[in-house]
Amino acid sequence: MQFGINFFPTVGPDDKDAADYFEESLSLVELAEQLGFDHVKTVEHYFFKYGGYSPDPVTFLTAAAARTSRIKLVTGAVIPAFTHPLKLAGKLAMLDNISRGRLQVGFGRAFLPDEFDAFGIDMDESRARFDEGLKACQRLWSEEDVVWDGTFHSFGPVTLLPRPYQRPHPPILVATAKTPSSCEQAGRDGHGLMMVPSISKREVVQDMLGLYRKAWADAGHPGQGEVHMSYNCYLSEDPAEARAKGKEYSRRSNAVMRDAVAAWGERRSEGYAGYEKVVENIARADFDRALAENKVLVGTPEEVVERLRTIREWFGDITISLQVISGNPTHEESARSMRLFAEQVIPHFRDTSPTAG
Question: Residue 227 pairs with which residues in a beta bridge?
Answer without folding.
Answer: 193
